[in-house]
């Protein structure tokens, strides 16, 4: 019995419909109707996830917004490496490769070449070198007109990010802590979707019952204190729902554990990109929209620089028809050359062709038009998430969404602080919403448990932290109930 159930001192009031012994009325009272449980449950999830995982989401949002603007910053900071004076003369790829090799010497092994995509651009001759990280290469930037070496930098991934953008990218991905740091981004991506969807459920429930519906679509005018913060939090949140859920879902595909499960699911459902056959014996290499984050393979045998021109010429007669391409020599004996389009803007140009370096015969070709629908969607999701698909427009939208998510986290903490019980100096911040799951019917509890188990299998890190939250919350509630049962007054009979 809680303190609110205690009666004043005196005899029990007899139940007129009871037995002659005067059984107290509450023993024959009809059962109390169940209180609503779904919305309080969403509120509790939204509260706890926002408070406990908010810092991870905030860091991911701020670093993501910063990453979005790095391509423009990169073009300014590395203008000398990326650009060269337009010249009426031009060197062959083979001549440019020889210049780069003479510059490098025996310190590294030739791995790929990216011809200058247009007038005024430089050619990248890329080398695999011991000590570089996954998907990193050492790039020598060559003026295709004069052969001048414009720079020598470490670059990363298919995007060809230079050191500044790579640092911001790794901050967003792993806090620059390497593989262990990726757990932070997996937590942020996983819980972002949970927080947003729970918040959307709460918003819908309030929108259906409130008369001032416009106050949930834009901040309420004249509101102050907590109501002002809530108005901004609710109205800003509903406009960011689609973008936030997209970033959560697409971000999970990069994660360590959840991403591996997503890849396994795509493979089981044949949702992967078609494989390009690269082995002259017939083996194929599977396509992957995240392939730019792997290990760079270096050729095991010497490659004639002039072969780059010959292989590219054959590829141009097949399906390679854009300026942004990468030419990779065989990584081992019995392997074909690969010429891959790397244009990530729309319309998507990622066609690839493999070529026998000895005979210049086409071994295989893969066109983006032949990708399964789900493989195309995966490719587009990655490019949208990175801000490359629609250029500047894509970047602006991502910057707004990421900045909005960061603002939502800050507003959430401000609301929590505003709701603190000011009369109790011992408590510095607002308390959690009341328990909800004990009020749920059996089918509701079973549904919640089933969803939690399913989510835990697909997203293990989310499942583990969710279980930790539930156990921790149960312990806190048990301690509170025990303290309350010791201090509450007992009714006098």
From TrEMBL:
UniProt keyword terms in alphabetical order: Membrane, Transmembrane, Transmembrane helix
* InterPro entries (alphabetical): PepSY-ass_TM (IPR005625)
Q: Does the keyword Membrane apply?
A: yes
Query: Which superkingdom heads the taxonomic lineage of this protein's source?
Result: Bacteria
TM regions (residue ranges): 41-69, 188-208, 229-254, 396-416, 436-455
A Pfam family this protein belongs to?
PepSY_TM
Q: Which residues lie within the region annotated Disordered?
A: 1-33
Q: What is this protein called?
A: Membrane protein
Phylogenetic placement of the source organism = Bacteria, Bacillati, Actinomycetota, Actinomycetes, Micrococcales
């Amino acid at each position: 019995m809680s303190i609110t159930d205690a009666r004043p001192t005196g005899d029990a009031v007899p139940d007129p419909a009871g037995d002659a012994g005067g059984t107290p009325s509450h023993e024959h009272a009809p059962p109390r109707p169940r209180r609503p449980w779904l919305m309080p449950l969403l509120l509790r999830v939204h509260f706890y996830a926002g408070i406990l995982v908010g810092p991870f989401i905030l860091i991911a949002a701020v670093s993501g917004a910063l990453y979005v603007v790095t391509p423009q910053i990169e073009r300014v900071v590395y203008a000398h490496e990326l650009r060269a004076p337009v010249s009426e003369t031009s060197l062959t790829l083979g001549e440019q490769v020889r210049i780069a090799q003479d510059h490098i010497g025996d310190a590294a092994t030739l791995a790929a070449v990216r011809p200058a995509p247009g007038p005024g651009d430089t050619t990248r001759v890329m080398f695999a070198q011991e000590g570089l990280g996954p998907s990193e290469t050492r790039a020598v930037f060559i003026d295709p007109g004069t052969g001048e070496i414009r720079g020598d930098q470490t670059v990363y991934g298919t995007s060809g990010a230079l050191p500044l953008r790579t640092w911001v990218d790794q901050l967003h991905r792993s806090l620059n802590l390497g593989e262990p740091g990726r757990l932070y981004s997996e937590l942020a991506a996983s819980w972002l979707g949970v927080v947003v969807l729970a918040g959307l459920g709460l918003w819908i429930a309030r929108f259906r019952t409130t008369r001032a519906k416009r106050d949930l679509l834009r901040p309420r005018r004249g509101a102050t204190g907590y109501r002002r913060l809530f108005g901004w939090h609710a109205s800003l949140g509903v406009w960011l729902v689609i973008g936030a859920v997209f970033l959560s879902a697409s971000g999970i595909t990069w994660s360590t554990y959840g991403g591996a499960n997503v890849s396994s699911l795509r493979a089981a459902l044949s949702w992967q990109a078609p494989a390009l056959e690269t082995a002259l014996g017939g083996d194929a290499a599977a396509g992957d929209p995240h392939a730019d984050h792997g290990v760079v393979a270096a050729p095991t045998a010497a490659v004639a620089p002039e072969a780059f021109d010959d292989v590219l010429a054959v590829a141009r007669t097949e399906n390679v028809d854009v300026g942004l391409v990468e030419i990779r020599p065989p990584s081992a004996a019995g392997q074909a050359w690969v010429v891959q389009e790397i244009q990530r803007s729309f319309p998507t140009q990622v066609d690839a062709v493999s070529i026998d370096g000895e005979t210049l015969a086409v071994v295989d070709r893969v066109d983006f038009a032949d990708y399964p629908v789900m493989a195309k969607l995966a490719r587009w999701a990655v490019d949208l998430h990175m801000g490359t698909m629609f250029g500047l427009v894509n970047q602006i939208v991502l910057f707004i969404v990421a900045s909005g998510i960061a603002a939502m986290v800050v507003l959430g903490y401000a609301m929590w602080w505003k709701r603190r019980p000011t009369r109790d100096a011992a408590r510095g911040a607002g308390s959690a919403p009341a328990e909800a799951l004990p009020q749920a019917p059996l089918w509701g509890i079973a549904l919640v448990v089933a969803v939690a188990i399913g989510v835990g299998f697909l997203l293990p890190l989310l499942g583990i932290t969710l279980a930790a939250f539930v156990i921790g919350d149960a312990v806190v509630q048990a301690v509170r109930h025990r303290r309350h049962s010791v201090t509450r007054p007992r009714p006098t009979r």
